[in-house]
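user: can you give me the structure for this one chain? tokens are fine.
assistant: on it. calling the predictor now.
[tool input]
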Amino acid sequence: MKVHQIRNATMLIEAGNQAILIDPMLGAKGSSAPPFTLFRFKPRRNPIVHLPTNATQLVAKTTHCLITHLHPDHLDKAGEDFLRLRNIPITCSIKDEKALKSRGLNVVQSIDYWRTTDFLDGKITGIPAVHGYGFVAVPMGNVMGYHIALPNEKTIYISSDTIYTPDVHKVLTEWKPDLAVVAAGSAQLDIFQPLLMNMEDILKFMKNAPHKVLANHLEAVNHCPTTRTALRQAVTQHHLTTKVLIPEDGESIVL
């Protein structure tokens, strides 16, 4: 299995003859969304970085797409256009199925929370996610994480945009994924509490994960202040360097 970090939460998972695209935000720098914060952090249009030079080559391999939620930093117009043009089969949350179909996308499967169902040649389970601490999680809407188990491959838990919850803890400690993906950018709007795990909970996630952890959702949108450098320093201070992967955009990891 190969995992390619493309940008933000966008990844490509190659497993056998499948190439699963996760949350495609494929627009050019500054073309996908207005600034998510105007005052707390520098108001730059999103994404704030270019796609890596190998992004087109990687995305062209896509055989299937998995969408965690509908925010524009996880599915932008360019991502939609790519999926529509190629008629890529899509798996999504049962709560997002209607909206995605209304956009002309090829939704072939929708998943409910804690339901395990067939996925490609293996199984997939929808895992609840809570997009923020306190009240802000309500307007941020529904998000779904996924636990993926394909035959003869490592198991993967894509936690998506969430804080650390009992559901997250259960997957890490009871399901014991071989790779757990955490959105580590500590996103925050101009008001309210953070939308993603703070550093304390990111480290808790990393410590409780039984095997490898991949940190993404970094340095690509203007409301995510955590940098790769700061995260690597924290990981080093807590003696987690042998467990945690913090790939650059365009970097590939073999599991």
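assistant: here you go. Helices lie at 55-59, 77-86, 97-102, 137-140, 166-175, 199-208, 228-237. The chain has one domain: 2-247.
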